[in-house]
């Protein structure tokens, strides 16, 4: 039986999307929109542009892939002090959702082995508060299904303090409440529903999360000792434990160029030597010039560095990779590391069970010694799900994800108020 339906036309209903720009939709959009910047490389229906009330504008294009689902492209960040958008990413998307069950009876690659993308869910108006729900034409849906799904939410949200500082005058407090652009969609896989959420903060940070909700798998209430948790009355209904290993695939294009460097930093702490008052800490940089399977560790971090772009202090622009909490699953070769840096290859799209044959079916095989001049970052964040009584019903969303944070993209805090704009470097107090 064939469920695939090829669709030559990918154009959306322009009428339905004419009000596509999210500016003006949310509580953070109180200020007038700035003059349009250089045209994005997509038509209006596929553009997302949001100026947040602090003055920061995020711009990107979206499209919908028949396996990866939501794909964001040509993502740029323009804080209020910058004359032009600063490109951050060529492309950002999920790279796989790998779900092995603890009893060894089942293992899924949800993006490439299940109709993840085809099961995009219609959003109720109430689940995109203050925002805009766009219609997505879903490729390869069952012929009986409507391919037009109200499935993409763009909205804004407050995140609490962006900063706070007591001024010299008694009554002066510098404080700002941070605002974020949120972009999300929900895909159903079996009994689960996955919320794929992208959060673009007005301070330049991007946080990507997947939230699993829906319902525990109905077929898996028969776990043995040590492989599940009883969630019915008494010692009954042992829900089988399992892992959700989520991969993201980020193709950086800092300052509009795909030629980016990668650096790893490690710090070593040494006990006080004789005569020293305190332990000392030394941080060292290692340039990552070849493909690498990397592991998170205390005092270790990475950044992707622009080869050309500099901020107004003359420092190379970069984005730091900020891993989230993860339970690394050692069961498969491709889940053994937290992070993979691979040289860009348009065949290498999914961290496991990749449809194309690119010298191996999984990301670990693609780390094979190539020089790293156009790095693609694969982040693997694992969550070991041992069910609890509270998982019924519906199952509360459990989130996993990570962030990328600007490091020297701007010469100062992009949200610095004008009165403090002179306090850059080792400034002298005035007055
Ligand atoms: Cu789960």
TrEMBL record:
Residue spans crossing the bilayer: none
Source organism of the structure: Streptomyces cellulosae
Gene3D superfamilies referenced in this protein's UniProt entry, alphabetically: Copper amine oxidase, catalytic domain
Name recorded for this polypeptide: Amine oxidase
Obligatory cofactor(s): Cu cation
Stretches assigned to the Copper amine oxidase catalytic domain: 44-414
Subunit comment: Homodimer.
Pfam families, sorted: Cu_amine_oxid (PF01179)
Cofactor note: Contains 1 topaquinone per subunit.
Protein family (similarity comment): Belongs to the copper/topaquinone oxidase family.
Modification after translation, per record: Topaquinone (TPQ) is generated by copper-dependent autoxidation of a specific tyrosyl residue.
EC number(s) from the headed UniProt entry: 1.4.3.-
Signal peptide: 1-30
Keywords linked to the UniProt accession: Copper, Metal-binding, Oxidoreductase, Signal, TPQ
């Amino acid at each position: 039986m064939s469920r695939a339906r090829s669709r030559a036309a990918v154009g959306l209903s322009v009428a339905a999307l004419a009000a596509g720009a999210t500016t003006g939709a949310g509580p953070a959009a109180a200020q007038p929109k700035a003059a349009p910047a250089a045209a994005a490389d997509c038509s209006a229906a596929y553009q997302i542009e949001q100026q947040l009330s602090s003055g920061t504008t995020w711009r990107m294009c979206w499209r919908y892939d028949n396996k990866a689902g939501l794909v964001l492209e040509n993502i740029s960040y323009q804080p209020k002090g910058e004359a032009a958008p600063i490109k951050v990413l060529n492309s950002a998307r999920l790279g796989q959702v790998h779900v092995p069950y603890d009893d060894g009876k089942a293992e899924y690659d949800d993006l490439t082995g299940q109709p993840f993308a085809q099961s995009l869910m219609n959003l109720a108006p109430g689940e995109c508060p203050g925002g805009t729900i766009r219609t997505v034409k879903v490729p390869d849906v069952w012929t009986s299904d409507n391919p037009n799904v109200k499935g993409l939410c763009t909205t804004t949200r407050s995140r609490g303090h962006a900063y706070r500082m007591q001024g010299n005058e008694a009554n002066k407090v510098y404080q700002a409440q941070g605002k974020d652009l949120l972009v999300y969609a929900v895909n159903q896989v079996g009994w689960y529903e996955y919320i794929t959420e992208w959060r673009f903060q007005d301070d330049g940070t991007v946080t990507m999360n997947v939230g699993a909700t829906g319902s525990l798998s109905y077929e898996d209430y028969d776990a043995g000792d040590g492989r599940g948790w009883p969630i019915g009355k008494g010692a009954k209904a042992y829900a089988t434990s399992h892992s959700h290993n989520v991969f993201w695939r980020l193709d950086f294009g800092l300052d509009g160029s795909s030629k980016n460097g990668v650096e790893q930093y490690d710090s070593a702490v040494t006990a006080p030597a004789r005569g020293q008052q305190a332990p000392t800490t030394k941080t060292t940089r290692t340039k990552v010039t070849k493909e690498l399977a990397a592991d998170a560790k205390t005092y270790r971090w990475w950044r992707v560095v622009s080869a050309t772009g500099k901020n107004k202090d003359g420092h190379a622009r970069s984005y730091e990779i900020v891993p989230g909490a993860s339970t690394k699953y050692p069961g498969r070769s491709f889940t053994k590391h937290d992070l993979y840096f691979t040289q860009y290859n348009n065949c290498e799209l999914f961290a496991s069970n990749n449809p194309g044959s690119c010298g191996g079916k999984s990301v670990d095989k693609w780390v094979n010694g190539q020089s790293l001049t156009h790095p693609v970052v694969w982040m693997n964040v694992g969550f070991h799900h041992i069910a609890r009584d509270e998982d019924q019903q519906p199952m509360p969303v459990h989130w996993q994800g990570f962030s990328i944070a600007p490091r020297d993209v701007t010469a100062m805090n992009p949200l610095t108020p004008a009165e403090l704009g002179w306090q850059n470097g080792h400034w002298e107090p005035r007055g």
